Amino acid sequence: MTAAGGPEAEEATGSAGSSWVLLLLAAPAQSGLSSAMVRLHVKRGDESQFLLHVSGSARLADLAPLVARIYNGRLKVQRLCSEMEELAEHGVYLPYNMQGLTDEQIEELKLKDEWAEKCVPSGGSVFKKDEIGRRNGHAPNEKMQQVIKKTIEEAKALISRKQVQANVCVNMEMVKDALDQLRGAVMIVYPMGLPPHDPIRMELEDKEDLSGTHAGLEVIEESQAQLWWAGKELNETKLLSDYIGKNEKTTIIVKIQKKGQGAPGREPLISHEEQKQMMLYYYRKQEELKKLEEDDDDSFLNAEWADNHALKRQFHGVKDIKWGPR
Q1: What is the tally of structural domains in the chain?
Q2: Looking at the structure, do residues 276 and 252 belong to the same domain, yes or no?
Q3: Residues 220-241: pLDDT tens digits?
Q4: Origin, by domain of life (predicted)?
Q5: Is the Cβ–Cβ distance between 56 and 246 less than 8 Å?
Q6: Enclosing domain of residue 303
């Protein structure tokens, strides 16, 4: 699988016309044209992914692969961040034939990690055993751990879903920037490189094998990408403007799907946040009504102080007289 964000990404555009479209799509985030661009709010299912500025005249045959490339690139960054968190805690990946084995089993089978002495972190290592048994336990020192962790935070922030709430559009340059930051951190902490079987190195070299994994199911091949808007499939033979008109200052929600998966679920009439606010409002109203019902309770009428004739009986001295046989 060719991962998004690799050096081949720009070549994947195909024809010269496609290249022109991609240049036009990638530029607005840094130019003054952003106000004249259509903003796509890309979702996968009901989950927001990112915002993207595109031209209304963009060909959908080019737009769908571009959206898939950014979507897959974000997944790649997330996978790298997850593995690099483990790298900071437990060191490099063990050879496959040593993973999950106890020290006694490794000694009994006379197995040796040939890469342990080659791939030493800068500044030395501290031992922190990996209970899962995937990494060798020779973690970087505290200073180098902070280099990795800080870079992970910065890379995640670049492609985070929170960018949608902040109205920040994401493009392939931002995805590549996040990947370059992670690559740089690995080179700083491990100047001698990582073992060829380490998933971090495989991701950075675009050699990852995601077959049979949950991560592999999340990836949408560019050739299989399909965009939907307002319950309609956006036909690849048309332009975006054929569906949304000539209005270049609008935001639309598009959903990315794999071809053959059918139409995605329609957008709810109200957002999740609006639903929460409505439920909170009606809960408060219900509590207010309960309180009013309690205030309207007339059981106090049986109380002595509410008896209109109590004063008269007390004056006549018949206050505590009880009628009936004793």
Answers
A1: 2
A2: no
A3: 999 999 999 988 899 999 999 9
A4: Eukaryota
A5: yes
A6: 272-316
